[in-house]
């Protein structure tokens, strides 16, 4: 549908008409008094209800990696819906599920060659945690039940993922959570890393904190360490040089599985299929979602090493190896969207495009260093974070106002407290990068 038609075919919603929908992660009463509604999307832009074009500086929510309205993905979904709308993958399935699993395994790091499909990043994390425990039990080490994550980590909203997450506000209202969880410190130290570009050179030693936790809990009780290779929602913290390698070595030495949560970094965000490829560190499991279908249909997955898979396949052939799954695992429409998305990524060479344009992205982000209120800037791949000095007595207010001013100016960014987060579609061009950061500079100049 052309953008102009999409915008003109909608009328404003009344407050009463909006009341039934409880929006997630949203101050609902405030939102419904001044709603932000989109009626179309194309390429790098959303279209607001009033017809304004909004450049998408967040790829939706870290997920529309190939830009909006990719025709090949749209056509694939429509064709599949008319051919096979649904089939369960409980003791049956459909050919596209197997094709998709094979193609994902081809682009994943060597040795990660099995895929368990879910419907979201949250489900992927809970699935990975269950697989980790199941793996150790299958090998006769049922005592390995503990998980170790990091402060500032975001691992979704499922019960397991929330338990291993390290963002206090997400956890506060819902305890007690899983008790067998501990957290490493996060890797960001402004005194050592302020205005770092890419991976900081300082901080590999922070991985040694894992040794201290193992000394407290006993390695034989730990099932897995789960980390985002690049902390995303917690503030875009790239891993220090050597940090992930050290985690891998410690886990190997102690028989602990290493899980990379790549829900954000998967499918090109840091210039490779997965951050594991980009950093040259191979975990035992990778959780993914978001960019898997370019966000056109909800879908997620856990990419599993042969070592883990084979351990769970050791019983009788007629036995269900993993009592876990979802009604919509490998949904036909999601598989069609994901296969088309992989075609788009390949044909447009978007992972290579992300690597090519990343230096321009980095330069534009750090050119803001002299703008008002800025205390730190970080970037890696097509991710960036800008920390603002909080207002006295009003933490988060300055970030929220800056994001609001950018929106009014035609640019969608995300504020997490006083941190501005950026994660555009991989199709972003040089002039759009310049325009986005110019809008942020204007907003910062206007924010008191």
UniProtKB/TrEMBL annotation:
Its cofactor is pyridoxal 5'-phosphate. Gene3D superfamilies: Aspartate Aminotransferase, domain 1, Type I PLP-dependent aspartate aminotransferase-like (Major domain). One of its GO terms (molecular function) is beta-alanine:pyruvate transaminase activity. Pfam families: Aminotran_3 (PF00202). One of its GO terms (biological process) is biotin biosynthetic process. Keywords: Aminotransferase, Pyridoxal phosphate, Pyruvate, Transferase. It is an enzyme of class 2 (transferase). Its EC number is 2.6.1.18. InterPro entries: Aminotrans_3, Aminotrans_3_PPA_site, PyrdxlP-dep_Trfase, PyrdxlP-dep_Trfase_major, PyrdxlP-dep_Trfase_small. SUPFAM superfamilies: PLP-dependent transferases. PANTHER family: ADENOSYLMETHIONINE-8-AMINO-7-OXONONANOATE AMINOTRANSFERASE, BETA-ALANINE--PYRUVATE AMINOTRANSFERASE. Belongs to the class-III pyridoxal-phosphate-dependent aminotransferase family. This is Omega amino acid--pyruvate aminotransferase.
